[in-house]
Amino acid sequence: MRCAVSEVYIAAVGQIPVSKGGDTLGRRLGAAAIEAALAEAGGVVPTALYVGNMMSGILSDQQQLGALVADAAGLRGIEAMTAEAACASGAAALRLGVMAVKSGLHRAVLVCGLERMTHAPRARTTAALATASDWVHEGGHGESFISLNARLMRTYMDAYGARPEDFAPFSLVAHDNACGNPNALFHKVVTLETYLGSRELVAPVRLYDASPVCDGSAAVLLVDEELARAAARDGKPLVRVAASAAATDSLALSDRASLLRLDAVIASTGAAYAQAGIGPDDVDLYEVHDAYTIITVLSLEGAGFAAPGEGTRLGVEGAIRPGGKVPIATRGGLKGRGHPVGATGVYQAVEAYEQLTGRAGANQLPLATVAMIQNVGGTGATVITHVLVREG
Amino acid sequence: MRCAVSEVYIAAVGQIPVSKGGDTLGRRLGAAAIEAALAEAGGVVPTALYVGNMMSGILSDQQQLGALVADAAGLRGIEAMTAEAACASGAAALRLGVMAVKSGLHRAVLVCGLERMTHAPRARTTAALATASDWVHEGGHGESFISLNARLMRTYMDAYGARPEDFAPFSLVAHDNACGNPNALFHKVVTLETYLGSRELVAPVRLYDASPVCDGSAAVLLVDEELARAAARDGKPLVRVAASAAATDSLALSDRASLLRLDAVIASTGAAYAQAGIGPDDVDLYEVHDAYTIITVLSLEGAGFAAPGEGTRLGVEGAIRPGGKVPIATRGGLKGRGHPVGATGVYQAVEAYEQLTGRAGANQLPLATVAMIQNVGGTGATVITHVLVREG
Questions:
Q1: Of A40, A341, B169, B225, which residue is the least packed, with the fewest Cβ within 10 Å?
Q2: Same domain, yes or no, for B52 and B193?
């Protein structure tokens, strides 16, 4: 009755440069990324589109992006819907796409991550981002994502004696890596002095601990094994989605078992390792959700790369750099490439695919075979992890 | 390489009465419907939750309902995300649940439709609903869903010479049926005189052509074939999701090929018929998306129950009544039960399941074996169709 379903592969990717202050409509941003993916699709025709987006309804008065973006991209008529899981919306759409192919209901589907955040007044965007928190207990009382992450960071510093300079490497490495990525928002080297000298948004979170508000869109085409192998005969690389796993936690920090542990990171990473048949040592790159440096540290610990309280050492010791034990943010991450929230999870997939197929340009890692990408909604309330593996 | 995947069954359902003006938090509405479904789940433990919702971000400053509602329902930790396709968000979540089980990634998943609309000022809710239209071309220019449906209705009346009284039966039958449904918002018989005497919201749409603003939540538990058959041995009815199909169209009416034809209804119904191996004559009840009487008429035509221009005859001739050829809105539909938008698609599934399993109380149809449910986003931009079949 139950049997093995199709494996899922990435057949093509597309992205647009992350930007600030443009006036292009969201549908056009999405369509541009989709058109880029379709341009390298080799004639494969998708029959569904899943859009990851968080704030279009609030900031642009526009819902139903699935049908809207499908139409804008010349795909009117196909199945479409929007997936939302706050800042993990992109990965939610990616997971939806994986299910659609594995279910046998589709053989080729598009996943598009899309967010437009810079056209609204900054205060409105900040409030919209706080709708990912528990509004009754947090956002509605004036908490923002900066203040919530500040609470996590302060708790961590108090518990483990971590100093500000221990967090700096996560920001510096991301900015270094972004310099080699033409689609990144920032192309500037950040030094320890700059990091330490940057203003505190909400102590102890400094400007360079936080990812920027920006606009962007990315897309991937997922196909079943038969289509992927046919494309491979024509010379296309084979990149398999070896794991897809999601887990949740309370939105409100006050309801958590511990502020020093992201349970949903632990659960979704554990499930992803089990699905892919790997462990942390097998991961060649980890596109971590570095929205805030404290989230990076807690994610590295939750994913098994460091013991609790020792995540910052990975930064200090250089393990997170391109040649290190666990390279992160290899194309700039959320901090350097930018964090257009609903698009981020799909940018991560695009960038990991590029690393695995030798398309990462100035940022190319040697011998990357296994990439783990992780997208976090809220301060750890929804965590979605995918493992991509290059075959052959 | 490709093989038959698991069939998907409904194992349990839950709902709360549709209401107006309550002050219960959305998460609690969702949790109540889920708890009702779990109470009859016979110990089956779901491993994921998919929430259908359209406007929580706009009207309640709360996104990430997947994780939030999971937590409120005592399911903290499980996979969760939100599906959005405007007024078809409930069916989008249902389709996501179907994919999750068919993909083999889950054996039992919860689907919850949820919307809270009456706590905001009426003008704000009306504007929020218009975010399902093309905001750049319609909503942003002052169009509402009433005015857009008025354009469809006027065009239909002009083309086919339909009169106001031709639309009345769709409203009257829905209200008649709602009288027997304890979970319906309205329990009052509406007469032709009341219908014709009701005020025009935007001519020719009268008050009784439109579904009400309200709050509600419904839930279904989907399981794979093995779990369903095990439950059947304990006496549970077997209701299979025999088809699940989605299609889209332009959001803007001005971009449509024809205002008299809902192409996405035609496409998704056609695909659903093909999947289930049935045609219109095999459908025992059609839970149609009767948000506006004109949508009902165009849907009946698009789904093949009447030729173009002849949909209103099904009302006049009584075919849509419980004993008729194609009973619709059997528990009151969107008009009588109410239309809490993101919840509606799941209410439809709950009600169809009740009909197929002899639980429809005063509204029970005799010998109902095949139910078609259809949920429409916008004025036909996203249309998602499911066919439920009682086995044995």
A1: A40
A2: no
What type of residue is A272? A
Spell out which residues of chain B touch residue A224, defining contact as CB-CB under 8 Å: 2
Residues A205 and A305 in one domain: yes
How do beta strands A216-224 and A8-15 pair?
antiparallel
Q: Establish whether this prediction's ipTM goes over 0.90.
A: yes
A249: nearest Cα among A51, A386, A383: A383
- Does residue B3 carry a catalytic annotation? no
Which of A82, A98, A248 is nearest residue B78 as measured by Cβ atoms?
A: A248
Task: Measure the CA–CA gap between A165 and A152, rounded to whole angstroms.
Answer: 16
DSSP letter, residue B324: S
Candidates A68, A128, A251; nearest CB to B251: A68
B25–A67 C-beta distance less than 8 A:
no
Q: Is residue B137 part of a domain?
A: no
Q: Which of B112, B172, B159, B143 is nearest to B329 (CA)?
A: B172
Residues B249 and B233 in one domain: no
B51 within domain boundaries: yes
Q: How many CB pairs under 8 A join A and B?
A: 245
Contact B131 A99 (CB under 8 A): no
Helix (H, G, I), strand (E, B) or coil at A74: coil
Shortest distance, CA A334 to any CA of chain B (angstroms): 20
pLDDT one-digit tens code per residue, A109-121: 999 999 999 999 9
Chain A residues closer than 8 Å to B139 by CB: 61-62
pLDDT tens for B135-170 read 999 999 999 999 999 999 999 999 999 999 999 999
Provide the residue range defining the domain that includes B295: 144-200+242-387
Closest approach of chain A CAs to the CA of B157, in angstroms?
A: 26
Residue (of A181, A388, A167, A169) closest to A286 by Cα position: A388
- Specify whether B330 is located in the same domain as B229: no
- Both B183 and B271 in a single domain? yes
For B126, the closest chain A residue by CA position comes to A61
- Find, in chain B, the residue whose alpha carbon is nearest to that of A275: B105
The minimum CA-CA distance between A204 and chain B, rounded to whole Å, is 26
Cβ distance of B1 and A6 shorter than 8 Å: yes
* Residue A5: predicted pLDDT: 76
Residue of B251, B252, B247, B227 lying closest to B238 (CA atoms) = B227
Q: What is the DSSP letter of B211?
A: P
Residue indicated by tokens 């975010």: B131
Token pair belonging to B37:
């479904």
Distance of alpha carbon B215 from alpha carbon B207, whole angstroms: 19
Look at residues B89, B230, B79 and name the one whose alpha carbon lies nearest to residue A381. B79
Q: Are A322 and A365 in contact (CB under 8 A)?
A: yes
Of A58, A79, A99, the CB nearest to B248: A79
d(CA A71, CA B248): 8
